[in-house]
Amino acid sequence: MQHEYQDILVSDVSSGVLTITLNRPEAYNALRTQLLSEIASVLQQVTHDDAVRAVVVTGSEKVFAAGADIKEMAALDTVGVLNDPRVLHWRTIAQFPKPLIAAVNGFALGGGCELVMHADIVIAGDNAQFGQPEINLGIIPGAGGTQRLLRTVGKSMAMQLVLSGEFISAQQARDFGLISEVTIPERTLERATALARKIATKPPIAVRQAKEVLLKAYDTTLESGLTLERKAFTLLAATEDRNEGIAAFMEKRKPNFTGK
Amino acid sequence: MAYETIEFAITDGVAVLTLNRPDRMNSFNTQMHAEVRDALKQVKKSDEARCLLITGNGRGFCAGQDLSDRNVAPGAEMPNLGESIEQNYNPLIRSLQALEMPVICAVNGVAAGAGANIAFACDIVLAARSASFIQAFCKIGLVPDSGGTWTLPRLVGHARATALTMLGDKISAEQAMAWGMIWKCVDDEALQAEAQSMARHLATQPTKGLAFIKRALQASWNNSFDEQLDLERDLQTLAGRTEDYREGVSAFMDKRQPTFKGK
Fold it and tell me: Could you tell me which residues come within 8 angstroms of residue B118 by beta carbon, excluding any fewer than 6 positions away?
């Protein structure tokens, strides 16, 4: 990637996977506007880059992201919050059509936890802690924390986290379905990358359709969701990769997907 | 911090923490908790320490909580024991378990109540033949704490753990060894020398590898077999990247004694 970033590191694409590393160690990777805009900008760029099949987002071995930038937030009045460009950056991240995998070690709090919930799959180190401590500052989560959390972990745990500001461990987060795997911190990124690489070998149109209909399940009725699933399923019947996938299976060979 | 209720020193890679309230059977009061906490922090920070040895001065190892610290006068407000556990005992047990080096306990005499369970939270327990272990909690209406109800069933099985904790019988060091509650019981006069020599040996071993072993064994209590296989793979990956592994293999090939650095 040609760009120089202030707040993140962006890897070269390797085996179809691009890695974004949050890199503000002096601020525990607090998600200031600059950082969010950089993530959004990278995702926007790679949306149309066929070489990128999946993106991994990670922090350091000690901290994923400890929240929003409080100083920056304190400077905003109501009108300022209304015009906050961060909303657009979050939307860009939410609408990224390719798989986004988070590798989380240490604290994922506030905006950090919300970024985790924007990811499609989350792998966490056993030192990870998740929480929405906004309530302690007299505010509430503002990037989907109340909505995605409720849909993911259910009402009681979502209320507990949001109203009390308490943190949960990686094990608890897995028990509640917030994340899918717990590993040792030294291997979190490796595992997330391996998973991303595996997904990168799958037919990209099918992956994209699957992600889209899965996410639609959050805000449609089952009946509409099933209809959408059927449409996507039908659509895939027109792709070369589907024919290749089925042919390779019948012929007991490895498929060669082209993304068409 | 100048210590009054413990002795503490790091020599030749071995950190020795000696509980030192012999007139009170080394029972814990708030000051001793603070001093132990401080000493453990130093062990953790130290570049030199590669093994921790815990023992007691006098005839007892540790009688648990100093009951004279507890206000139980009629009419007085009931003490909040949970708070003391949250502030003192649980952090102590957690830091012993989290310490990334072997922790040896030399039980020189009676280990009662939390004193017994602190010993069981260490990695290798040696005991003097005259030492004993008592889950004394039931005798004063309490529940074993400091991990006792978790550790004991795993060490000796449910039936023995239940009787031990409900009857509060004194178990001799020999019995404790026979039941697998501790590693070994030795003659009284040999205890400190044997514990020291074990600690000195461990301090020359591949510390990271030992810390990974400790982590894997601890995790095994909570993991499924599949999860444990994955964890072994991951920890072995890390162990395979240590300098000590390289040294170990090369010393083996060269037929010489390895020199481990704990890295």
Answer: B54, B62, B92, B93, B96, B105, B111, B146
**Integer Cα distance of B235 and B119 in angstroms:** 26
Judging by DSSP bridges, how do beta strands B51-56 and B14-19 pair with one another? parallel
Strands B124-128 and B184-186: parallel
pLDDT at A30: 95
Cα–Cα dist B223/A167, whole Å? 22
For residue A105, count CB atoms less than 10 angstroms from its CB and return exposed for 0-12, middle for 13-18, buried for 19 or more. buried
Residues belonging to chain A with any Cβ–Cβ distance to chain B shorter than 8 Å: 183-184, 186-187
Sheet with B170-172: list strands edge to edge.
Answer: B60-62, B110-112, B132-134, B170-172
- pLDDT bin (cut points 50, 70, 90) of residue B80 is confident
pLDDT score recorded for residue A74: 85
Question: What is the C-alpha separation between A224 and A226, in angstroms, rounded?
Answer: 5
Which amino acid is it at B263? Answer: K
Query: How far does CA A114 lie from the centroid of its chain?
Result: 9
| Closest C-alpha among B7, B221, B5 to residue B97 | B221
Sheet holding A167-169, edge to edge: A63-65, A107-109, A129-131, A167-169
Q: Which residue has the tokens 């997907």?
A: A257
Scanning every residue of chain A, which has its alpha carbon at the shortest distance from the alpha carbon of B98?
Answer: A127
Do residues A143 and A89 lie in contact, with contact meaning Cβ atoms separated by under 8 Å?
Answer: no
The pTM assigned to this predicted structure is 0.84
DSSP assignment of A109-147 equals ETHHHHHHHHSSEEEEETT-EEE-GGGGGT----SSHHH
- Distance between first and last Cα of chain B: 29
Task: Please tell me the distance from the alpha carbon of residue B159 to that of residue B154, in angstroms, as a whole number.
Answer: 11
Nearest CA-CA partner of B129 in B188, B211, B176: B188
Residue B138 and residue B168: Cα distance in Å, rounded? 6
Chain A within 8 Å of B241 (Cβ-Cβ)? no
| Structure tokens belonging to residue A215 | 């996410």
The residue in chain A having the minimum alpha-carbon distance to the alpha carbon of residue B216 is A184
Contacts of A105 in chain B (CB under 8 A): none
